[in-house]
Amino acid sequence: MAEIIVANRAGACYGVERALNLTLENASRASGPVHTLGPLIHNPIVVSDLEARGVRVADCPEDAGSGLLIIRAHGTTPEVIAEAKELGLEVLDATCPYVKKVHAAAEKLVRAGYDVLVVGEAGHPEVEGILGHAGKARVVGSVEDVRALEADGVLGQKIGVVVQTTQRLPLLQAIASELLAYAREVRVVNTICAATQERQQAAAELAAEADAMIVIGGKNSGNTRRLYEICSDACENTHHIEDVAELEAAWVHGAAKIGVTAGASTPQAHIDGVVAKLKELSR
Known about the structure:
The model has no long low-confidence stretch (mean pLDDT 96). The radius of gyration is 20 Å and the shape is flat. Helix 9 (194-207) packs parallel to helix 10. By secondary structure, it is α/β, with parallel strands linked by helices. It has twelve helices and twelve strands. The longest helix is centred in the first third of the chain and has 16 residues, at 14-29. 44% of the residues lie in helices and 19% in strands. The protein folds into three domains: 3-12 and 195-281, Cobalt-precorrin-4 Transmethylase, domain 1, CATH 3.40.1010.20; 14-96, Rossmann fold; 98-188, Cobalt-precorrin-4 Transmethylase, domain 1 (3-Layer(aba) Sandwich), CATH 3.40.1010.
């Protein structure tokens, strides 16, 4: 049987567990409808389980109609929360505290007169929430994005930078370095969550010594996709799955050491199920 090793930092982070616990606790005693504003976390299996418990997904406050509206772990804009309250909805804010720190950092930079850039994925719900706290901020996801802004003549001389909590540090460093070539002053607030950095480092170290690497988490999860990229760089035989049913025996055939990691929206039970199946497949 192959040796199966789970990365020493893997799976659901504090912000995800907090959001899930808040949702389950409040849904169990709610007298009316319960909705989350968008998927509570980026894990379709967990979202389906919540729906089975009566917690539905609303795309906007108006879709919820009435009852309790839970702000997902990724956060949202102040305008959306205000809209929900105007509609008479009870609002429970399950935004990750580390995401709230990004909001606060962006607001502080705006007050100090910086033109704010958000390092992250354009369109991602966390990034959209940050933009709601950052005035006329722009999103950059690469050094090329910075160069494009400079070419368009829209980069100011006093630039403040915050970053989506699940981004990779090398990307932030590369973008900050590029900005220094154009701006008189660059102030970077590193808002990458410590749990993200720990998971990425642990995954990279494990992938470097594994014959096969399994990354568990939602295909719509940005932090899980980055774990997959990191592991793929170190181990060619890396596979990203959402569910244990996706595992294929061919992936681990002949492997002496199989590594497992999981995104920040992956409960421990999902990891345990994958490990159990890998033991079966590698016999």
